[in-house]
Design goal:
Helix content is 20%, strand content 43%. The chain is an alpha+beta fold. The chain has one domain: Sandwich (Immunoglobulin-like), CATH 2.60.40.1880. Strands 1-2-3-5-6-9-8-7-10-11-4 form an 11-stranded antiparallel beta sheet, with helices on one face.
């Protein structure tokens, strides 16, 4: 079901950059947004990269999400960039001493279903998130995100839609 929702959102161009989303609250470096897709509530805890590597690349907007869909109890951890990523190479999420492989679909990276809850829990407790991936042009990219406010933002998104 989750892959269907992802494909649907990508195919109709719905992203948390759309202006139609309702801002709910801000928690330090994180914000919470709510939307309705096909009558179902969708809530996002989001944060923007505070460091992008390599410095010489034009990364554009880089946003990390923890998304809750009304019809699923699992959070969905993902990253969105403004360029395509290599789908044949795994990306990784690193929080404290924990690391998880993620997969790319065009310009987004998603956590595997079995890792979603562990990643969300680590985001609540950690201080820094690092995402590493390879662009379609074979450039290794890395992004750092502050986790200040992540616990409250993730909890609020879950409360609204989880």
């Amino acid at each position: 079901m989750k892959r269907f929702v992802i494909a649907l959102l990508i195919s109709i161009g719905l992203t948390p950059f759309a202006n139609a989303f309702d801002y709910v609250a801000g928690y330090k470096d994180w914000a919470v947004y709510r939307d309705t897709v096909n009558g179902e509530a969708v809530c996002y805890a989001t944060t923007r990269a505070n460091d992008k590597s390599p410095k010489s690349a034009n990364h554009g907007d880089v946003v990390f999400f923890v998304t809750y869909f009304r019809n699923s109890s699992l959070p969905q951890a993902s990253l969105r960039v403004s360029f395509n990523l290599r789908e044949d190479r795994p990306a990784s999420a690193i929080i404290s001493r924990n690391s998880w492989n993620m997969y790319a679909v065009r310009n987004e990276i998603f956590a595997n279903n079995e890792d979603e809850s562990a990643i969300a829990n680590a985001l609540r407790r950690g201080s820094d998130l690092k995402i590493e991936a390879i662009s379609e042009r074979n450039t290794s990219v890395a992004y750092h995100f502050s986790l200040s406010g992540s616990s409250n933002a993730i909890d609020k998104a879950k409360e609204l839609c989880g």
